[in-house]
Amino acid sequence: MSVLHRIEHLHDALAWEGDMPTQGRYTVGIAGEKFFREIQENGRFLGTVCPTCGITYVPPRLYCERCFAHLEEWVEVPATGRVHTFTIVHLDLDGNPLPEPRALAFVHLDGTDGGLVHYLGEVKPDQVCIGMCVEAVFKDKAERKGSILDIAYFKPV
């Protein structure tokens, strides 16, 4: 299949393998940098609060998506939350079977209007349920690099 091949049916969509002759640099932006720096240095989550709507954004944003207000108030938010939705992953990104299935969830963080997608740990996949209370487990400070992977997983509480 060439790059110009038109996909007419969903089952025709395939992963494109090979090299792409492009260069670029991705940054997490101002809000993302502050968010990940706080995780790296202090093992805590920060959010931004809209003064007009009262929404607490996690991950943080610089502008409210509802009223477009500039968000300048940063607050520490709990590392606890509830499983909003989840899936059980059986294959890695290359389609190879994992040694054991893993649970991947969207965790709605307490006291916020947002949350994070991350792995669940210290729980068997068949024990995961929507509404389950969980807490972030951070890697040791020496192992943190300023990324979402500084969170080892979320565990049941």
Q: Can you put this structure into words, describing what you see?
A:
With 157 residues, this protein is mainly β. It has a single domain, classed as Beta Barrel (OB fold (Dihydrolipoamide Acetyltransferase, E2P)), CATH 2.40.50.140. It has one helix and eight strands, in the order αββββββββ. Strand 1 and strand 2 (56-57) form a beta hairpin. The mean pLDDT is 92.
List the helices and strands and how they pair.
Layout: H1 29-42, E1 45-49, E2 56-57, E3 73-77, E4 80-91, E5 97-109, E6 115-119, E7 133-138, E8 151-156
Antiparallel strand pairs: 1-2, 1-3, 4-5, 4-7, 5-6, 7-8
- The fraction of residues assigned to DSSP E strands is 25-35%
Instruction: Describe the largest sheet.
Output: 5 strands, antiparallel
Radius of gyration over all CA atoms, rounded: 19 Å
CATH class: Mainly Beta
Helix count, DSSP H or I runs of 4 or more residues = 1
Count structural domains. 1
How are helices and strands ordered from N to C? HEEEEEEEE
Tally of strands: 8
User: Uncertain segments of ≥5 residues (pLDDT<50)?
Assistant: none
Short description:
By secondary structure, the protein is mainly β. The protein has one helix spanning 29-42, and strands at 45-49, 56-57, 73-77, 80-91, 97-109, 115-119, 133-138, 151-156.
Top keywords for this entry?
mainly beta; globular; OB fold (Dihydrolipoamide Acetyltransferase, E2P); 34% strand; 1 helix; 3-stranded antiparallel sheet; 8 strands; 5-stranded antiparallel sheet
